[in-house]
Every structure is written in structure tokens, then in C-alpha cells.
UniProtKB/TrEMBL annotation:
The lineage of its organism: Eukaryota, Metazoa, Chordata, Craniata, Vertebrata. Pfam families: Endostatin. Residues 1-166 form the Collagenase NC10/endostatin domain. This is COFA1 protein. The gene is Col15a1_0. It comes from Ramphastos sulfuratus.
Amino acid sequence: LHLVALNLPSSGDVRADFQCFKQAQLAGLTSTYRAFLSSHLQDLATVVRKTDRHHLPIVNLKGEILFSNWESLFDGSGGQFNTHVPIYSFDGRNVLTDPSWPQKVIWHGSTAHGVRLVSNYCEAWHTADMGAVGQASPLDTGKLLDQKVYSCSNQFIVLCIENSFVSDPQG
């Protein structure tokens, strides 16, 4: 399953599922992509289909492994990943080094176990208000689910996860 960033940083007011869908299509990707965010309807840990959570690796846009599987992100360790493996945007830029993302922090709105934090998810990702807060993770920690609170006015990285694996029928 591919983990890919939106092409630009975003405040806490983001129509992330729609953006993930649209940018994946524009990039020629045929699978469904969902925001790597807890929402008012769903915990982050359940965004990927149950059947795909254990046996498929989580990879970047070039197929390099970030996590052995979806479940391994939510063991409570904060989603430790190899910072030497780039995380790419849909247009192919490395968010860890590209200046388009001056703040190397990702929004997630979740606990270390991928459960939504209702008080820390920018009002279900509908506000960029300076007084509202969202849970996010500075990538220099090497974790996708580090537990830091930031104002929703910040412009951070938003990740998208391929939420269902479809094998190539010709393959």
C-alpha cells in the first residue's frame, strides 16, 4: 500500500479525502486513496481495509518500504519509520527535503494507537483557526504518530494512504 503526500502543505481546514482522491487520479494512480487522518467518522487505524492491514507492506511512491504492514504503525511506538526512505508527494517530490514543505510535520489527529483525538483534530479538519489545535508529528523524530499539539493555522504535510489493494488483473 502506497503512502503519499499531498502536493502542498495544508492548514487544519483540509478536504483531505477529496484531495487524496483527486491528486492520485491526476498522478495516474488507479487505487483509492484516503487521508492519513483520524476523522469524526473513523479512527486512523481503520482507514485501510481489514483484509489488507497485516500482509501488505506500506511503501513510498517508488515502492521502497516504510513499514512492514499497516498494523505495525499502531503498536504504540509512534509509527517509527526509516528516515532514509523518502516520503514522496503525488507529483514526485520528497517532502523530507523539498522546500515546498518548510515545516516537516504531518497532521494525523490520533493517539499512538491510531484512535481519533476529538479535542485535537482541528474540528474534524474543518478549521484553520489559530485557537484550535490538531495532533501532529514532527518527522525529525522518525515517527508518523508522534504526539505533539499544534495550532490548526499551521501549514503541515498531509499524507494519503492507498486504502485498498487491487492487484493487476493482467498480472
